Structure formats: C-alpha cells, structure tokens
Amino acid sequence: MTDSTKTTDAKMGSKAGYYQRHIFFCLNDRQNGEESCAHHGAQGAFDRCKSAVKAAGLAGPGKVRVNKAGCLDRCAGGPIAVVYPEETWYTYVDESDIDEIVESHLKNGKVVERLLTPPDVGR
C-alpha cells in the first residue's frame, strides 16, 4: 500500500471499504397481487432515511450510503431494510422508526433491537 493510498483510506474512515455503512431498502413492487415492500411505504421510508442521513452530515465517502434494492427475499417481514457491514435486518413501520435507525445505528453504531427482523422470517 502506498502512502497516498493510506492517506485516502484514512480520509474515508476505513481501510477496507469506501463507505462505513450501507443501508439497503427493499423497494420491490410485485404486480401480481402478492404483498411486497412497495405496498408498505418503502419508497417514503427510503426518502426519509436519505434526507435524514444527509441532514445529519452522515452521507458521503467514509460515512453512510443509502441504497435502493430490489427484492431482498424477506417479504413476510416487510417492509425491510438491511444495514451492512453488520448484516442487521430491520422491519420498520413509520418515520419515527427510520429516524431511530438513523440516529442509533447509522450515526452511533447501536442496533435498534426492537426493530430487528426475526431471523427465521423469509419470503
């Protein structure tokens, strides 16, 4: 590793990756009548999270990236979001849940236990 790479990595906040955390929101919209995250306000939650992350100064390299995702195959727990690298799966209900995920997990690294998706919930 060169000195310039070390300097760049230090600025990014991580030696292994470009972002400290990613949060992916399932925005899948099933058109065949099956339930999906899009039917439960997923786009609004994504928009809320993206705005909150930006307002908190958490967005950008070395920080947090808010991403859209297709089906994450955990529809029974929807709407679903997952935070990496921790592999923490969340089921949320409203804007206050999103605000809590941003403040507690994305900003302070503390998992929001009450919003965890049970491990056996799949499609």
Question: Would you spell out the secondary-structure blueprint of this structure?
Answer:
Elements: H1 3-12, E1 21-26, H2 42-55, E2 64-69, E3 80-84, E4 88-91, H3 95-107
Parallel strand pairs: 1-2
Antiparallel strand pairs: 1-3, 3-4
Helix pairs in contact: 2-3
Structural commentary:
- With 123 residues, the chain is α+β, with helices and mostly antiparallel strands.
- It has one domain: Glutaredoxin, CATH 3.40.30.10.
- 30% of the residues lie in helices and 17% in strands.
- It is built from 3 helices and 4 strands, in the order αβαβββα.
- Strands 2-1-3-4 form a 4-stranded mixed sheet, with helices on one face.
- The termini are far apart.
- Mean pLDDT is 88; it is low at 1-14.
